[in-house]
Amino acid sequence: MTLRFFHCFASVLLLLSVSSLALAQGRAVLQDAQLQQLGLQKTWSTQLPIGAKGAKLSSLAQAISPDDMQTVFEVKHQGRSTMFSSRDLSPFGKPLGVEGAKAKADQFVARLDQSKEKPELVEHQVPEVLLLAQSSSGVLTALDGQTGRKLWSQLPGQAFYPSQKASADAKYVATVNGLTLYVLHRENGELFWKRNLSGPPTAGAVVGDGHIYAPLMNGIIEIFDLQDATKPVGRFQSYGQIFANPTITEATVMWPTNRGFVYAGNSFDDKFRYRIEATGEVIASTTHLAPSLNFFATTSGYVYCIYQRDGRIEWRRSYGEPIVASVPAIDDIAYVVLQRGGMHAVEAYTGKEMWYVPGVSQFLAVSGEYVYVLDKSQRILKLEKASGALMGQLSVRDFDYFYTNLESDRLILGTLSGVLYVLQETGKEFPQVHIPLKTGDEEEVPAEEETEKPEEPMEETTKPADGNPFGGGGNPFGGGGGSNPFGGGNPFGGGSGGNDASGGSSDSSNPFGGGGGSNPFGGSNPFGGDDSGGAMDNPFGN
């Protein structure tokens, strides 16, 4: 009797556990009927391999390469659509190319019955889209942004060491794990080279035109040659600490510091351009509107629109509330999300108010006609782009990760446990891309007198500082004289012993100022966990 009771009890527990697992897996699901009400459809969904138990999705980056385009010929006929891509393979196993794909499409059109309806042939230029998902365990996963297919998954560095947001260009992926910068091949994730940073990183390294820019806690951005890691390191020096990823354009690399300064240097070499002193702290990354404008906002409620070539302020406007998010600027409209909720849409070139929607907490994406945002009640709102009118809403309470998409019209959301959804407007098989798809020399900028100006300035503007990133004067920190411009042996203030810039121990090998030893974090495992990171193999052998 006791044995039978035990078996029954074990069966009940098994059923309960299976039911709980099924319930957990059934959460964070978007039904097709729900999406259709908002005029959306699922592009794809997946479960990310985030690594060891307890790991979470820590960052997501989207890289759209303008250098790796495919041409797709779409034949529309009697409600059906047939695609022919330049990357389709011939019978000999080689890509068709543009001419081959066009010939295949023409042959297909010639075989269609055109007595009732003439087929339409549409040419699409489709860029390569890469999603880079970084987990707290250190696992970096690359996905095809069009299909969701997993391209590769690697652990660059040590498991559960802090990893920063990844960045990529057409050939390489850059990521930081611990105190080491790793450069991987974009195609397969294999290691290209790695190099130690001179200090603790505070944001992700970004790939520019032949260079990689890695921001450090002490306000330095180290510059590495993308092709040759043995070349000497260049650097940009700034005042304050950097907590936001730098923004790369064809002309500039721009970054803010926690002291209210925004800096800019060339994105093709190590030449410094200018510094702007803002009214308030700048928390989020700057944004770019091609060909010539950059935007940023401050915690004191100001939004700045600047001319990226020389830092001239086009307009500045106060919103009276803190702003801690970036300012997306797409299709000549800038979107300002207030920290306490609400979003302003303004004309990008003049700062003139277009419309305002209360309760908005995050910008998600924008298409040709609509803007998609997240509100404080955890709902996706579909707004008319021209007026801000509410066109529909969708509850997404089971999701806790939302990507601000400045690069395309796709909606990207998921969970910290690794569920990822990509949504598109119904019938839009190809993404609408918001970044320039042609590269070359520095962008052509309209002459100063031809640049559109507001009829009346929004507010009296401030002038950018000169070429000195510290703003003139022998010592910007007011310290003693001598060859050290920081006025003492330690630019951060604190102990004066040795060469320790953190003001702690004089052991220069430890940038964190902790105890001695080869581990800069102090202890055998700086994060208190098992160094194996859940018995995950480390392909890099460090």
Q: How would you concisely characterize the structure shown here?
A:
The protein has helices at 2-26, 32-37, 97-111, and strands spanning 40-47, 57-77, 80-85, 120-135, 140-144, 150-154, 167-168, 172-177, 180-185, 191-196, 206-207, 211-215, 220-225, 234-237, 247-248, 252-256, 261-266, 272-277, 287-289, 293-297, 302-307, 313-318, 329-330, 333-337, 343-347, 353-357, 360-366, 370-375, 379-384, 390-395, 401-402, 411-414, 419-425.
Give a written overview of the molecule:
This protein is mainly beta. Among the domains are: 66-110 and 119-125, no CATH class; 473-542, no CATH class. The chain is 8% helix and 35% strand. It contains 3 helices and 33 strands. The chain has helices spanning 2-26, 32-37, 97-111; strands at 40-47, 57-77, 80-85, 120-135, 140-144, 150-154, 167-168, 172-177, 180-185, 191-196, 206-207, 211-215, 220-225, 234-237, 247-248, 252-256, 261-266, 272-277, 287-289, 293-297, 302-307, 313-318, 329-330, 333-337, 343-347, 353-357, 360-366, 370-375, 379-384, 390-395, 401-402, 411-414, 419-425. The strands form 8 sheets. It has a 5-stranded antiparallel β-sheet. A 4-stranded antiparallel β-sheet has the order 1-33-32-31. A 4-stranded antiparallel β-sheet has the order 7-8-9-10, with no helix packed on it.
